[in-house]
Amino acid sequence: MLNIILMGPPGAGKGTQAVDIVDEFHIPHISTGDMFRENISKGTELGRKAKEIIDRGDLVPDDITVAMVKDRLSKDDCANGYLLDGFPRTIPQAEALKALGEEIGRPVNTVIDISVPDQVLIERIAGRRVCPKCGASYNVNTMKPSVEGICDRCGAELIQRKDDNAESFAVRLKNYYESTQPLLDYYKKAGLLHPFNGVGNPADLKKEIIELLRGLE
Ligand code: ADP
Ligand code: ZN
Fold first, then answer.
1. Could you tell me which of 74, 31, 70, 71 has the C-alpha nearest to residue 54?
2. Does pTM surpass 0.85?
3. Count of other CB atoms within 10 angstroms of residue 118
4. Is the CB of 57 within 6 Å of ligand 1?
């Protein structure tokens, strides 16, 4: 069974890879970023709390984020594995996840760290367009949809995320290095960490990450 965390800086390709992985292994894709954005677009109380924080590139407080993930991971569809994308992002989140994994009898057993140099991240984020409906990611330079501005998967109109601007991205990257990168050492010590080179063409990367996970199943 694969209980996976996908780690990596903003723009590393976590969301893109996640979509392929969950398709292949038939496990739920749990993206905290997507969950927050859904709450924002529906205007829930959680969404109202998170919106400004997310737009400026900061991290939503741990208690809010952990409660949301706890709810999601407790659902039945996670019984045969799951893929976490964008969580945990801080040591307290990782510790909460450890307790939760034990509680539900499905502890994380695989952590993939996708690495990509900063300069490439900056270029990817600037060109990124996303589908507000299904969460698919595109890039106006390197991963164009078949019809400009339209999602290949669901036909919705693509948008640029509000936090995909230079200023918010700089905050996100700083938060990544300060709060999230220390988790790599945490998971390395736990013997769960698998490094993955995230630079390359999307089709090759897809094949490589699925091969890596097949070997760990
Ligand atoms: P990316 O990986 O491209 O930065 P995500 O879609 O994963 O984007 O997350 C978008 C934003 O949602 C983050 O910048 C942050 O504000 C918030 N967020 C997502 N996951 C978490 C988390 N685990 N803890 C705190 N904030 C989070
Ligand atoms: Zn779509």
1. 31
2. yes
3. 12
4. yes
